[in-house]
Amino acid sequence: MKNNKRLGFLFLGLLLYVGACSEKTSNENKSSEVKTYQKAPEFSADSAYAYIQQQVDFGPRVPNTEPHRLTGDWIIEKLEGFGLTVTEQAFEDQAYDGKVFQLRNIIASYKPEASKRILLGAHWDTRRIADKDTQDLDVPIDGANDGGSGVAVLLEIARVLHADTLQPNVGIDFIFFDGEDDGEPDHRNFRDNSQIWWCLGSQYWSKTPHVKGYSAYYGILVDMVGGKNARFYKEGYSVQYAKNIVDKVWSQAHHLGFGDFFQMRNAEAITDDHLFVNQNANIPMINIIEYSPDFGFGLYHHTHKDNMDIIDKKTLSVVGQTVLFTLFQE
């Protein structure tokens, strides 16, 4: 009996030793795990900058004007040239002061046959007043950053997808929303709280999508993404409706070395196109937008300073590469 008991203790000790070694090996394996990423093509800031310049050269893209019409036709021409399937969604809507706008959302699809889809959005119209300026308040603004930069980032991503041999594993829908930037100014007596006068295009599309029953895995809106010294914070509605997507995009931006631009801080909620995509279309969509929790919008916002002088290729590169990289991780 003594011998058997001793053998039992030896056997138990051996089991404990083997278990400890196994646990140690498992922990070492976990600590050595490194997240792998798929390679993505290069985003060209020079190309995106040229797309902004072209829009500004057309003139302010105010609905019902010739520059607005010419810009819309140009966007469609570029998208079709990139081999995308393009849909125009024409509609009529009323502004805060009773003015009736003829508007059109422009939708372009990459791999329209793919079931898993990512939605990329930007607005292509510009503001008809410079209500935050000190002079020429009733003169339309260039909208180089507010409108122009988001359009340019989407066009450059579309161009890269068309030209590069590397291809993502998902379908992508590009939506250029119209009528985003004509909301009522705070200092005038036009306010009617029964209706939101901003984001007319996304309000319309989110209730009547270009494809019945349209759905996407998630969406990314880019707005004011080309300014010098821009910093991007986690916008409130984005965190509320799609926190996991915010965290994923910000994490990937940091992986790319863009941590100075993509700040790990929350900012307040902003009424922008993504809000209505979330609320009405039930698609989790985030907003990459220059808005500081400390200072608010940049000093150029809704002024004549929103011109080519404030556009920075580095900012365009950071945002464009982050969004492009994100698409290739799906």
Automatic annotation (TrEMBL):
Family annotation (InterPro entries): Peptidase_M28, QC/QCL
Peptidase M28 domain span: 105-324
Annotated keywords: Acyltransferase, Signal, Transferase
UniProt xrefs under Pfam families: Peptidase_M28 (PF04389)
Signal peptide interval: 1-20
Gene Ontology molecular function: glutaminyl-peptide cyclotransferase activity; zinc ion binding
TM spans (from-to): none
Protein name: Glutamine cyclotransferase
Species in which this protein is naturally found: Cyclobacterium qasimii
